[in-house]
Amino acid sequence: MLQRIQSIYLLLAVLVSAVLPFVLNLWVSVDGYVVYAHDLLKYDSVTVSSIPVLFYASAFVSFITIFKYKNRQSQFVLGRVNILINLFILGLLVYHLQSLSGEVFASEKGIGAALPLIAIVLLVMANRAIKKDEDLVKSVDRLR
């Protein structure tokens, strides 16, 4: 049953969480240095250096969720956990981007900071499709 629509949404969430943060920049510093997610591992701060790890954790949970199609309830719960992970990533990014001074450290914010929002939207759409499948199975069970 990998051909369901929620599998497509979850695969897109894997792509958004695993590939795009390392392709799209998070911000550009005043001296022209472009900061990607993998550059955050060099920071001494635990909160900042955990952002790329959380991106990979989100991608891993989305990938595992794709293959849990036989147990829709655990698939739904993993989707919610993944939404929480992405909300945490978004909170860390917003906190860090707001603590940066405008022209001292970062002159321009990148589009990569919006990737957790895109992942959250994809995960909500996947959870909606999983819920619809679960409701359909329950309605057929009532007819028997």
TrEMBL record:
<feature type="transmembrane region" description="Helical">
    <location>
        <begin position="7"/>
        <end position="28"/>
    </location>
</feature>
<keyword id="KW-0812">Transmembrane</keyword>
<protein>
    <submittedName>
        <fullName>DUF4293 domain-containing protein</fullName>
    </submittedName>
</protein>
<feature type="transmembrane region" description="Helical">
    <location>
        <begin position="81"/>
        <end position="98"/>
    </location>
</feature>
<dbReference type="Pfam" id="PF14126">
    <property type="entry name" value="DUF4293"/>
</dbReference>
<dbReference type="InterPro" id="IPR025635">
    <property type="entry name" value="DUF4293"/>
</dbReference>
<feature type="transmembrane region" description="Helical">
    <location>
        <begin position="48"/>
        <end position="69"/>
    </location>
</feature>
<keyword id="KW-0472">Membrane</keyword>
<keyword id="KW-1133">Transmembrane helix</keyword>
<feature type="transmembrane region" description="Helical">
    <location>
        <begin position="110"/>
        <end position="130"/>
    </location>
</feature>
